[in-house]
Request: fold
Amino acid sequence: NAGVTQTPKFQVLKTGQSMTLQCAQDMNHEYMSWYRQDPGMGLRLIHYSVGAGITDQGEVPNGYNVSRSTTEDFPLRLLSAAPSQTSVYFCASSRGHEQYFGPGTRLTVT
Amino acid sequence: AQKITQTQPGMFVQEKEAVTLDCTYDTSDPSYGLFWYKQPSSGEMIFLIYQGSYDQQNATEGRYSLNFQKARKSANLVISASQLGDSAMYFCAMRGHQGSGSARQLTFGSGTQLTVLP
Reply:
């Protein structure tokens, strides 16, 4: 049981490039979420999903797309990277009250 | 909308002493959950403790306890017998129990950096 996995761990992008952050969970959880953490701040919700085929926006969705074709996977796409998207990104899944976080992806946009 | 406020950016505590990290919240949801997470310098988010809004007793998990005062909308974390390994950033968070929208996802405070002194 690997829990929540994220790839890559680190990524450097140039402004305007696109990329996909991968997230997978093997706990058969319905709820999955993406958060970003900026220095000195708590995590902020980007997008979330309540099940396969269902996604919705969180607090800071601009510049990001998501899809949920399977229960296990919830990728986050950056369409055209901007320096303001430099952050640490966490994926999480949950069932009941406990939320399990992945190890995070540290993204730098130059 | 939900809001979490942590007013202590940094705290220091002597090893083996107890420390209280403050958290206040605001929500219109009649049913909700309150969480504390630990984030060490390695960066992972570690779940510590959970309190449901209708739980009659304060939650405890080993050296962690949650001092829940519903009328004051506060959910302070108490760490007893602090250890050097407790040095980390601590986040308070909440989640509503109603509906299926973003209110059911976690809203975080800005965190408190705890340093345990030898």
About this structure: Chain B touches chain A at residues 4, 33, 35, 43-45, 47, 50, 52, 91, 93, 95, 100-102, 104-111 (CB under 8 Å). Chain B has a mean pLDDT of 93. Chain B has no helices and twelve strands. Residues 35 and 50 of chain B are 5 Å apart (CA to CA).
